[in-house]
Amino acid sequence: MTTSRLDDTRVCPPTTVKAVTPGRPQPLGATPDATGVNFAVYSERATSVDLLLFDHCTDERPSHVITLDPQRNRSFHFWHCHVEGLQPGQVYAYRMDGPSHTRELGTRFNHRKVLLDPYARANTNELWDRVHAIGPEDNCAYSMRSMVVDLHSYDWEGDEPLRTPLADTVIYEMHVRGLTASPTSGSEHPGTFSAVVDKIPYLKELGVTAVELLPVFDFDDRQVLRTGPDGRRLHNYWGYDSFGFFAPHTGYCATPHLATHITEFRDMVKELHKAGIEVILDVVFNHTSEGNEHGPTISFRGQANEVYYHLWPEDRRHYMDFTGCGNAVNANHPAVAKFIIECLEYWVTEHHVDGFRFDLASELSRGAEGYEMDVPPVLWGIELSSVLAETKIIAEPWDGGGLYQVGRFPGKRWSQWNGPFRDDVRRFVRGDGGLVGAVASRIGGSRDLFHKDGELPTNSINFVTCHDGFTLNDLVSYDHKHNHANGEANADGAHENFSWNCGVEGPTDDPEIDRLRVRQIKNLAAILLLSRGVPMLLAGDEFRNSQNGNNNAYCQDNELSWLDWDQADKETEVRAFFQRMIALRKRYGALHEAAFFTGRRNARDLPDVEWHGVELGKPGWEDTEARVLSYTLAGFGDDPDLHVILNMFHLGLDFELPRIPGRRWARVVDTSYGEGQDVLPGGREAALERTDVYHANGRSVVVLVSVPRSDDGEQ
Q: What is the Cα–Cα distance from 386 to 491, expressed in whole angstroms?
């Protein structure tokens, strides 16, 4: 765990209040200008608002308290003032009071609680103690505070969002801290935005086009969830518990005591862009860190609790919970929708972010009473925002309250995490029968899910693993989850993972089992990268990162979750396989078309796809025991034709090959081969000795490419 820290080098500007004028109600937040700072905050029902100014982050009491006059400093729902003399770096917070009719109105005003600015661009947590934010007592000496930030002094060096087409995108999901927290990373500032920059050469060599960062909005990494069986205190590691939505997480900054939050984040984005790598943020607008009625007061609860959260109509003291985290954000209230959309637009305009993945996004489609809306304003507002028009928007299309919207998520251009892709491919590769029809659909971009309303394969984010669940190595090494380290008696995490341990639970010294596991990893990765849609990889899968069978490591800020870079140096075979498969996907247009198969034919009169089994034209759609699938992809323009064989049967089988006049088949991928031969680089394909069949070893994926014959004869 990292937190902000203070030393004598921190330079705080003097808190100089020359004059206080009414200021402006927009924009919300703290906006510095040539003469001072404009403060604006939303609260419809507050009856009094105090602006607190602190000389230093660690001061227990403010040096100045500015009480806003409802007649001069309020415009409808917004409280505001301009303080002449203040500068960027100023530390501030709020206190509010108002009606306490919690049961009837849902308000939770408490003037004794210090509140963060929801629009703050940076926060400090040197004094933060979560316990003191719970209950009615004054918590000023233990509170977080916000900081005024100058957004306009940074040199972007001409940087802009990259706008990589979705069809050409390969996503690498990673945790900012987990990427480099291990001493094996060799980073000077491990676990920070700055350390991500150290790994850019690695990411570029791997070939990914985008990193998807687990939450980087400010969250409470000091909260102790429980003590693990080994006596270690367990904290919120993943970060799915935001409170500062406009602020980079303090714990990911190398020098937060110097108020470098914005600069460090921007430096990371700029350097990733120089390498051609986009930045997608995993954002959590479905709930906040304030939890239920027993949680802390941080900002929203003390300013407009009845607006920001879904509350039970019969007794508004209690929170609806569609997230499993204690509360649910009332995202389609106009003020909350404004907050969410302005937040997203801020990260795009001010930080050049390329896209967003929305955690439990279906919660954002719920109306005031908690029911699903046909046309949720916030989701359509995001889709139709001109500022976000070229930004990738990705939904996790379900929530914790049972709403499941894969293939029917509101809007048209939203990409969606494709849970059926994960489950069907996992089951197929482990050897379950009767799945060839479903797998064919997944490979083709999940037309069955996305075509009916005019969507495209790029609406599907294909993945086999993600942060939530087994790593790829654990998927082929464990039949059961092993989450005892989480301190919840192994009751947490998904119970059904569609995994197979290849014969032994956990680590093994048996070389045959280990070779089979490597092959299964290759099979899963190959099918992912051969499928239409947008592939997403989990960081560390490319070098067999393991979490010892833990499929819910949300609280493991330690070696269990941190990537081991010594392992990356050791697992060269799997790592090279990933690199070459990503390159192969980019090389052949048929693998990343932004359209569904339609039957159109190429110059050689081949349809865009033909499905087969062991025999040509017989894919076995109705065979409940079928464990094999093959198919031919037509190449258009200068692209060659491809033939793919998926043999998930445990024995080797001979697969009939199609004949193409003037062409012959050459092997480019065979996952049963060892390092250096499993994926061959372009121009070094291996010509087949036989032209009529290919013997695919048991549990293997094969890709053949058609190349011109040296004569005009047919195969």
A: 45
